[in-house]
């Protein structure tokens, strides 16, 4: 009973968070206010973190919150400020491509949904899967996936340097 | 929990992100749409990782987050540059690669 | 007489290497011609060595062949048909017509071969002195040698095509040689006149050959296995009764027209006197003894064709004898008004050729051929004598009235050889002309052509007369002009001699042998007339000797045994059986010997037909056998055939000296064989007839002598200028002087009336039609090109090219919006493609 409760709770939680995420995402791409879009993105990111917890990926969830919401979004807001985005609504943030974009998005969505449905049908995730510990993650990182880790460090370094180079005034 | 629900959630976010990339004029907003896409990918990864019972998905999700961060940094630097040169970040006007 | 026996019915005719290989005879001078052309100028004697040596070679081979032929005839029975030595090589055959080259050696060929080779040799030797230093010495010898090759080829020709080849070759060489000094217009005109006149006659040659071929070919192939071109085939065909009357008459007339042209008969005789523009050796070789007798030779060679076609012994008038007779008289008349000694001799030649033709036309075959033989010698001697006079006495002039006279004191050898040859020409006993010319006249009368016999006698009178005139003017009287030592310093008598001179020393400076030319002129100037050198006089003496002696080859007056020429040359009119023509004419390289020394006949069976032909069969593979009245005792029948023949055999006319039976050849169709020669009649010799002609000749000489003395020497007032005072005589004189206005007729009327309209028409055609076509083609091309340019090039092609460019541009322009530079669009593209890709994958894997 507890298991099923837990399951029901998880499902309900999932549904609520998913709904919030979808609405937030939609608001990101439709709002006329840049800052509002950034804030809605924060909502989406937070919802993603919550999903990660549901998916027994706590470390990733924390990392998501810290990096994405903490750093990336701040960066976005900084960028917005620095580019004199109007505080408040702007006239037009959408270009004239919505008649291309919408069909593509719908088509893609339809295709993916059909494929997913056909592929995984009603496969259930394991009910009581153990949590993935940080130790496990680090074992993976410094084990099999060491090389991507190093590459990634270079990427970060390059990104940092590149950003500085690009953005400096001289 | 069904696997499919996570995957479908990811699909929806992805498509919304695609729509945003195509439709949004402001460069920063386009970057935000790209963030949406990346996050949907993360959800997929973690869902599969849970299904398979290993930590591979986690690892890659972390890598994606790192890459996303780096990319945002560089992207915003470019946006700054764009703004400095032409006082606007509308991607409509940025068509010098035309032809 | 018949040899009434018996078994020895094998007739084996001897042959020999020279007879078998007589085809080499024309090849020797042909090779020499090539050598002279290529190497002559570098040789020490300028090419004349090749010519003279080749002629000696030909002469030696001809003499050898003659000797072997004589052996052949002597070794055969009296009445047997002497088969000619024939060889053929097929050169080309197609669809039933085969053309070949070969030799057909019989008595006629041998006689003419010897004559041609002999006189050619003498003339070539003579020319080395006469033309010494000439501007085209080497080419002269080349042409002379080529001529000899051509004539020798014609004489041995086995078929009509080969004969035509030799004929035309001779015509070409005649043209080249007459126009040897072509720098003077008169000489080249004379050469052209000769060529065109003989060419006019040659139309007849081609027509005749074709007609005869197409009529005869079937019969000859069937009966003898030879083509309708071969001489013996045509001869046998003509006498076989096969030919239709029209075909053979047309063929005979056409061939005779060619003979008229070549042998200078009326009306195509006009070229011969003009041909004297050539050097004197040419006149003596070509235009007196050898080339001009080619027409006579043709008639003699294909005599059965003419015999049947003109019905020679059946009428008292036929085309040949008429033309011959007319020629005799008109040429003799013209000889009286000539001042050029060579022209006198030329008309004399025409007249003598008329004798030969008349003889042939009247059935006197052997006397005519014998006259060819003897005439060659004395006429060549006369011409060479004229050349000797011009060379050494009259300072290259041939004008009797201006530059000659009284030369007998200065040129004894030339004078005596001239006199001998003149007497031979006039037919005085015992010179050779008596035995040939008088025989012609005699036989003409004997065969029923009485009118023409009278013409012949008149011709003899006239011949004697004009020759006496020429002799008087040249050798008697007082020397005139150059003969008197007068030296035309200014012009070398050039323009006076332009028409008939035979050398072209324009002035001393032009000669390449300057020194010699100077000498000869200076000698004349300082020494006057004198006898010529040995190189000139020795040939004269040789020929004069023959002029005396050659008559005795056929001295009919002295009896049958003296008639050697007849025995050796005249073809026997016997019926020859033809067996075994199963094998066809030889292919390339195959030699078919029709007259074999290995010919053996073993007669087993014989028929006794109503006519006198006796047939025998051969068992060997040879084709022709010779049959004669010899009968074997094998089958048992003997005398019945004999009896018939003995009774009916002797010729009714053979009183003396004739011992052969009448054969059906010519009068009936031969059965059981073929005839190659018609039965002819021979007039028996009577001294009374000879005496009459002698009287006529002497009368002519005497009368002419008296007139000459009166006219030229004493300048009798009554005679001098007679033609100017008397209108009738004056008209006659100018008629003769203008050569019966024939030249006017030919050149001004016929030629001009044909040539001018034709040339105008041709010009019109050229300007309007041909040029019109060419210009029209040009205009057409231009128009088409313009149209093509405007429509095809500009519109189509350029349109396509430009269109391709425009299309590319438009395509590019159409695709350009894809690369808008807008990031959103790129993103749209990317995701759109991905969506579609995903869709496709899903659909495929659904």
TrEMBL record, chain B:
InterPro entries: NADH_UbQ_OxRdtase_chain4L/K, NUOK/Mnh_C1-like. The keyword Transport applies. Keywords: Membrane, Transmembrane, Transmembrane helix, Transport. Belongs to the complex I subunit 4L family. GO terms for cellular component: NADH dehydrogenase complex. It is a multi-pass membrane protein. GO terms for molecular function: oxidoreductase activity, acting on NAD(P)H. This is Unannotated protein. The keyword Nucleotide-binding does not apply. The chain crosses the membrane at residues 6-22, 29-48, 60-83. It comes from freshwater metagenome. It is found in: Membrane. One of its GO terms (biological process) is ATP synthesis coupled electron transport.
């Amino acid at each position: 009973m507890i298991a099923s409760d837990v399951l029901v709770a998880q499902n309900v939680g999932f549904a609520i968070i998913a709904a919030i995420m979808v609405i937030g995402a939609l608001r990101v791409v439709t709002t006329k206010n840049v800052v509002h879009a950034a804030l809605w993105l924060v909502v989406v990111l937070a919802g993603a973190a919550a999903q990660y917890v549901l998916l027994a990926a706590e470390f990733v969830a924390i990392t998501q919150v810290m990096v994405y919401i903490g750093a990336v979004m701040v960066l976005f807001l900084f960028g917005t400020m620095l580019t004199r985005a109007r505080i408040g609504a702007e006239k037009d943030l959408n270009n004239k491509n919505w008649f291309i974009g919408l069909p593509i998005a719908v088509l893609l969505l339809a295709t993916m949904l059909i494929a997913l449905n056909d592929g995984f049908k009603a496969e259930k995730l394991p009910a009581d899967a153990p949590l993935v510990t940080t130790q496990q993650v680090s074992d993976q990182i410094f084990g099999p996936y060491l090389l991507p880790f190093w590459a990634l460090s270079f990427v970060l370094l390059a990104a940092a340097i590149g950003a500085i180079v690009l953005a400096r005034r001289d | 929990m069904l696997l499919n629900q996570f995957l479908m959630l990811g699909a929806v976010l992805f498509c919304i992100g695609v729509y945003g990339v195509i439709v949004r004029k402001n460069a920063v907003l386009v970057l935000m749409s790209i963030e949406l896409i990346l996050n949907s990918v993360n959800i997929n990864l973690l869902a599969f990782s849970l299904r398979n019972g290993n930590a591979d998905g986690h690892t890659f999700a972390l890598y994606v987050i790192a890459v996303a961060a780096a990319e945002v940094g560089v992207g915003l630097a470019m946006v700054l540059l764009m703004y400095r040169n032409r006082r606007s970040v509308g991607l409509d006007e940025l068509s010098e690669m035309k032809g | 007489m018949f040899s009434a026996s018996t078994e020895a019915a094998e007739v084996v005719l001897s042959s020999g290497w020279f007879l078998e290989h007589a085809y080499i005879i024309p090849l020797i001078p042909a090779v020499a011609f090539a050598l002279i052309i290529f190497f002559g100028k570098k040789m020490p004697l300028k090419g004349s060595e090749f010519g003279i040596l080749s002629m000696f070679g030909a002469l030696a081979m001809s003499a050898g062949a003659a000797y072997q032929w004589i052996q052949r005839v002597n070794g055969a029975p009296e009445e047997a048909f002497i088969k000619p030595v024939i060889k053929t090589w097929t050169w080309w055959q197609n669809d039933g017509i085969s053309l070949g080259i070969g030799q057909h050696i019989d008595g006629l060929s041998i006689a003419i071969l010897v004559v041609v080779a002999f006189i050619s040799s003498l003339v070539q030797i003579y020319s080395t002195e006469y033309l010494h230093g000439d501007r085209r010495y080497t080419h002269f010898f080349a042409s002379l040698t080529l001529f000899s090759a051509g004539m020798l080829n014609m004489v041995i020709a086995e078929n009509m095509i080969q004969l035509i080849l030799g004929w035309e070759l001779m015509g070409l060489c005649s043209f080249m040689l007459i126009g040897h000094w072509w720098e003077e217009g008169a000489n080249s005109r004379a050469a052209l006149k000769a060529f065109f006149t003989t060419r006019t006659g040659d139309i007849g040659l081609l027509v005749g050959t074709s007609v005869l071929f197409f009529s005869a070919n079937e019969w000859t192939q069937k009966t003898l296995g030879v083509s309708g071109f071969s001489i013996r085939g045509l001869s046998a065909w003509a006498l076989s009764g096969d030919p239709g009357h029209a075909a053979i008459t047309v063929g005979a007339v056409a061939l005779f027209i060619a003979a008229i042209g070549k042998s200078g008969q009326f009306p195509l005789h006009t070229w011969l006197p003009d041909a004297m523009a050539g050097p004197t050796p040419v006149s003596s070789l070509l235009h007196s003894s050898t080339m001009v007798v080619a027409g006579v030779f043709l008639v003699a060679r294909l005599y059965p064709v003419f015999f049947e076609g003109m019905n020679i012994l059946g009428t008292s008038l036929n085309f040949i004898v008429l033309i011959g007779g007319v020629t005799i008289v008109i040429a003799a008349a013209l000889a009286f008004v000539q001042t050029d000694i060579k022209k006198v001799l030329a008309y004399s030649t025409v007249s003598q050729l008329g004798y030969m033709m008349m003889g042939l036309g009247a059935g006197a075959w052997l006397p005519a051929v014998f006259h060819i033989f003897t005439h060659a010698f004395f006429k060549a001697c006369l011409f060479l004598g004229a050349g000797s006079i011009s060379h050494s006495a009259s300072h290259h002039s041939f004008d009797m009235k201006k530059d000659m006279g009284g030369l007998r004191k200065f040129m004894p050898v030339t004078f005596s050889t001239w006199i001998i040859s003149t007497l031979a020409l006039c037919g005085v006993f015992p010179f050779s002309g008596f035995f040939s010319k008088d025989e012609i006249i005699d036989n003409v009368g004997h065969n029923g052509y009485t009118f023409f016999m009278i013409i012949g006698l008149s011709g003899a009178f006239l011949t004697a007369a004009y020759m006496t005139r020429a002799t008087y003017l040249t050798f008697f009287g007082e020397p005139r002009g150059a003969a008197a030592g007068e030296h035309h310093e200014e012009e070398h008598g050039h323009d006076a001699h332009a028409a008939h001179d035979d050398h072209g020393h324009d002035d001393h400076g032009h000669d390449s042998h300057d020194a010699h030319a100077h000498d000869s002129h200076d000698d004349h100037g300082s020494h006057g007339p004198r006898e010529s050198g040995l190189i000139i006089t020795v040939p004269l003496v040789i020929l004069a000797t023959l002029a005396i002696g050659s008559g005795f080859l056929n001295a009919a007056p002295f009896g049958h045994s003296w008639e050697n020429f007849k025995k050796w040359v005249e073809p026997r009119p016997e019926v020859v059986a033809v067996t075994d023509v199963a094998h066809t004419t030889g292919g390339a390289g195959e030699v078919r010997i029709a007259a074999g020394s290995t010919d053996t006949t073993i007669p087993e069976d014989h028929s006794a037909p109503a006519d006198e032909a006796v047939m025998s069969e051969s068992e060997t593979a040879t084709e022709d056998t010779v049959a004669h009245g010899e009968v074997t005792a094998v089958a048992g029948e003997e005398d019945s055939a004999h009896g018939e023949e003995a009774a009916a055999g002797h010729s009714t006319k053979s009183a003396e000296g004739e011992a052969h039976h009448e054969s059906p050849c010519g009068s009936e169709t031969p059965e059981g064989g073929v005839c190659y020669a018609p039965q002819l009649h021979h007039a028996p010799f009577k001294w009374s007839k000879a005496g009459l002609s002698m009287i006529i000749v002497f009368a002519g000489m005497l009368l002419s002598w008296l007139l000459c003395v009166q006219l030229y020497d004493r300048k009798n007032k009554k005679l001098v200028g007679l033609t100017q005072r008397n209108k009738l005589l004056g008209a006659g004189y100018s008629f003769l002087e203008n050569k019966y206005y024939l030249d006017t007729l030919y050149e001004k009327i016929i030629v001009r009336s044909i040539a001018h309209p034709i040339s105008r028409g041709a010009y019109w055609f050229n300007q309007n039609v041909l040029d019109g076509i060419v210009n029209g083609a040009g205009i057409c091309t231009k128009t088409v090109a313009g149209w093509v340019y405007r429509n095809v090039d500009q519109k189509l092609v350029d349109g396509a090219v430009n269109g391709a460019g425009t299309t590319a541009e438009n395509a590019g322009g159409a695709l350009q919006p894809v690369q808008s530079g807008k990031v959103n669009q790129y993103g749209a593209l990317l995701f759109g493609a991905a969506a579609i890709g995903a869709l496709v994958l899903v659909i495929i894997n659904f």
